[in-house]
Design brief:
Blueprint lengths: L9 H9 L1 H4 L3 H25 L16 H14 L3 H8 L3 H17 L2 E4 L2 E3 L2 H10 L3 E10 L22 E9 L4 E4 L3 E2 L4 H7 L2 H7 L4 E3 L7 H4 L4 E2 L12 H29 L2 H4 L8 H20 L6
Parallel strand pairs: 3-7, 7-8
Antiparallel strand pairs: 1-2, 3-4, 4-5, 4-6
Helix pairs in contact: 4-6, 5-6, 6-13
Length: 317
């Protein structure tokens, strides 16, 4: 059983849950998260206690002042608005270290859930995404997006690897996969900003998955040109420009028409990325870079769950 009492008053907790502007999620989705993750968090917490040497009997010692529901809500507010741990500690009436520990425990649980595509069905790996698109004969769209991070300390050997060649800023990169409607299906673990989009896709095994898997059409931008030849044409990128100078008028017109047609099909992934960046934790990451992959995948999990709930009118409030 997960205790629903705690430091935060009932009225305050109800206000957080009922306002979608605070967490970005509906009350129904939050209730499902509590039901799914509460027992898992409790199980892991008990296993952690049992795994270490104890000088006191089981059940002795300090008790949790922040129950799981409040831990989840604190994590959601942090991810949605980028609220600092100090502010959350004042809001929830606990010490800053308690909030830090709570977010560190809940964030991996959210990341491990995967992206929800229908009630009870989630995608956790790129292979599952390819199989899902192939089974439904759907078109997928991929794109890389960058998240600004703090500059590594002076003297670190890998300091320059985080500098993005595109934006000339310290960043990490993730590959986002959506369906043709812009619904988020998967976000990859992050790589340093200097990693090219096409290199990242190859490292994730996309080429092998498409070459050996079901017939799937994947739309991509010019940063992925070259994957089409390696995947038998399954990755579709904008047309190459054959004339660099003095192109005939008919070619310019045809090239522009083809480019716009491809862009209009691919634009939905930009909408999906925009929805991800609405969560302030991904607009600019000010925490430790070792947690950024969990943060990206946790936000993708939450966003996809809410998108799936919005498609089912019976579950909306």
């Amino acid at each position: 059983m997960v205790d629903h009492g705690g430091v935060v008053g009932t009225v305050t907790r109800a206000a957080i849950v009922s306002s979608r502007r605070i967490t970005g999620l509906s009350a129904d989705v939050i209730a499902e998260l509590v039901a799914d993750l509460g027992p898992l968090w409790h199980e892991r917490h008990q296993a952690k206690l049992a795994s270490r040497l104890r000088q006191r009997g089981v059940g002795a010692g300090a008790k949790h002042r922040l129950v799981f529901v409040d831990r989840l809500l604190a994590t959601l507010v942090h991810l949605r608005h980028g609220v600092t741990h100090d502010v959350l500690a004042c809001w929830f009436g606990v010490d800053r270290s308690t909030i830090t520990r709570a977010i560190g425990e809940v964030r991996p649980l959210l990341a491990e859930r995967g992206c929800t595509i229908s009630p009870g069905v989630r995608l956790r790996t790129l292979a599952e995404v390819v199989d899902h698109l192939g089974a439904g004969e759907q078109t997928g769209i991929i794109d890389g997006t960058e998240i600004r991070v703090r500059r590594p300390a002076a003297g670190r050997k890998d300091r320059d690897t985080f500098i993005s060649g595109k934006n000339k800023q310290n960043a990490v990169k993730t590959m986002v996969v959506t369906d043709s409607e812009g619904r988020v299906l998967w976000c990859s673990p992050t790589e340093p900003g200097s990693c090219a989009d096409i290199t990242h896709a190859r490292q994730l095994g996309l080429v092998k998955l498409l070459a050996d898997g079901p017939v799937v059409e994947i739309l991509a931008d010019a940063g992925y040109q070259g994957l089409g030849a390696q995947t038998g044409g399954r990755v579709v990128t904008p047309p190459h420009r054959k004339f660099k100078k003095n192109a005939p008028d008919w070619y310019e017109e045809m090239y522009e028409r083809q480019r716009k047609a491809h862009s209009s099909r691919r634009i939905r992934v930009e909408h999906g990325i925009a929805h991800l960046k609405n969560w302030r934790a991904l607009a600019r990451h000010l925490g430790s870079r070792e947690h950024i992959s969990d943060t990206v995948q946790a936000v993708a999990s939450l966003l996809s769950h809410q998108q799936t709930a919005d498609l089912n009118p019976r579950r909306q409030r």
